[in-house]
Amino acid sequence: MSPRVTAVSCLVVTLAAFGLAADSLTVPKLVGQDIYHAHRALRKLGLVSRFEQVDVDTAKVTLFLVTSQVPDSGARTEPGDTVVLGFNHPGMLCYWNQSVIPLLGDFENTVSFYKVQKPPQPIVVEPAGYPEVLKQYSFSGAADAEALVDFDGAVLAARIVRSSGYAAADSSACATALRGSFAPAEHFGQPVRVWFPLPYYFQFKEDKALPNSVKQIRDPTEPP
């Protein structure tokens, strides 16, 4: 093989390797980190964070920590892909109104929503999903949440200020608030942190698996 052909081959391999590096990312190790910095690390890479609460009693834990991640560290992914972070919760689920979940960032320099000159402007605000577990109670109601909107419009945290009375609905409201995005609030021309009110409504809808004209057959083993 001539030197020129060898040089061209090396150039092609180099460009291919560069293209692979430019189009894909390596997922960092996030297990053991606090949620705030793990979220920031993913955002810096152009990846999307999604949070799932670990169903264990972690009442003695004082920090929100990443306990699992999917995909695992070292996996190849692309900008815009989602990384699911399992996190612990310091406290029982019913204490949403006493807990901030899940990003424990710097809460200083927060301006009251009612005093800020220019409040955050919602960009993406989703409705909260109806928890399947509440269908058995035919629950309809509301949960009033607040999202802590940071200087760049990212949501740092969410909390419940008026509970629905059901932990599952409050949890759904908090998780939905965390996925919101905003244009940041401004006070005297400077971006500020502010708690933004987000009311969520839950409407029970009965499942209609069978047409009204179809009667379910009674189990003969059950008493009439």
Automatic annotation (TrEMBL):
GO terms for biological process: transmembrane transport. It is found in: Membrane. Its main location: membrane. Residues 21-89 form the PASTA domain. CDD domains: PASTA_pknB. Residues 115-211 form the TonB C-terminal domain. It comes from the Bacteria. Keywords: Membrane, Signal, Transmembrane, Transmembrane helix. Residues 1-21 form the signal peptide. NCBIfam families: tonB_Cterm. This is TonB family protein. It comes from candidate division WOR-3 bacterium.
